[in-house]
Amino acid sequence: MQNRHLVGALAALALTASPVLAAEKPIVIGVPVGLSGANSVVAPSVVQAAELAVEEINAGGGVLGRPLALEVADDASGAAGAQKAFDSLIYQKKVDVIIAMETSAARNAGLPAVTKGRVPYIYTSFYEGRSCNKNLFVNGWVPEQQVPPVIDAFSKDKGAKTYFLIGSDYAFGRGMLAFTRGYIEKTGGKVVGEEYLPMDGSDWTAIISKLKEAKPDALVTSTAGGAPNVTLTKQLRGAGVSLPYANLAVDEGTAKSMGADAEGIYLSASYVTGIDSPQNKAFLAAMEKKFGAGLRTPNDLSVPQYEAIYLYKAAVEKAGGTESAKVLAALPTVTATGPRGTIGMSKQHHAPLTMYLGQVQADGSVKVAGTFKDVDPGEQCPKLD
């Protein structure tokens, strides 16, 4: 119920920031996000990050003298909900842009409306890669950036040669693990099991039994994020599974919400709260000031949302307005500096990113074990060059 109230309150957010800006027509950002369903664990942090970016930009005079406003819609973390959310935002609310972190199922379901409505879409989630559309830009990581640090560390530091893979049965889970299998085999390892559960599944008992029978050296999982991460990890710990475990879908906020169950998990991310930079420290301080005790842990899904709004601002300013064709032409040429550093979606509508290999500690924080600068996303959408 609280999330529903949040949706209704955000539309007017920008208009109260400045009496001068309030006289101008707002630039409306559509945010379809999983307030219910699998992503409901992380969605509130994404909305908070968007709120802060809009507040900061409006306090600085807006974009070309116009305020930003948010329209948030619940996509229910899936395809059916996304179709309704995108249709509402694009055709009824007449948003100027879509900026959102979503499941791959939701993204794919929303793309037809984006294409038909000719609306720019900045996708702020890490994902399985190779989603290509002239209207779509991505500032989250892809497998080429995220998987190698994990597998290389397990091979070199843990002596892992055999792996068991577990995923959610949809585009992200299967796409991530297909790349992971290929990388494991290319680097001399072997996959001894690969199992999937439906995206909304919560009973991992049978799969965990197969994991135990296979006796691998290491475990790699790729679920729908949020709730599936929580249920799978809890059941793994309850079953006494203690082998090296990398989760390709867990964000720092979700890991913290798991409590003791998350301790020891390895993750590879483009953002961790421990990044030691003036920009990240300023961002964390601003989030703490704005949300106080209600702050959700900033993470690898919410920070790209924050930065994407600044990327859109830069593109609109370069384009001289919100006309979609001009904004789309500007988006691959602009950058924004935020908690992750300076980001630009210059490589086939994707972003080179610094990646961090980390391990979850007992208090839920992430200890950085390795840093990989400006990792190229590889060949994602060559036809868009």
From TrEMBL:
<dbReference type="Pfam" id="PF13458">
    <property type="entry name" value="Peripla_BP_6"/>
</dbReference>
<feature type="domain" description="Leucine-binding protein">
    <location>
        <begin position="26"/>
        <end position="364"/>
    </location>
</feature>
<keyword id="KW-0732">Signal</keyword>
<dbReference type="InterPro" id="IPR028081">
    <property type="entry name" value="Leu-bd"/>
</dbReference>
<protein>
    <submittedName>
        <fullName>Amino acid ABC transporter</fullName>
    </submittedName>
</protein>
<feature type="signal peptide">
    <location>
        <begin position="1"/>
        <end position="22"/>
    </location>
</feature>
<comment type="similarity">
    <text>Belongs to the leucine-binding protein family.</text>
</comment>
<dbReference type="InterPro" id="IPR028082">
    <property type="entry name" value="Peripla_BP_I"/>
</dbReference>
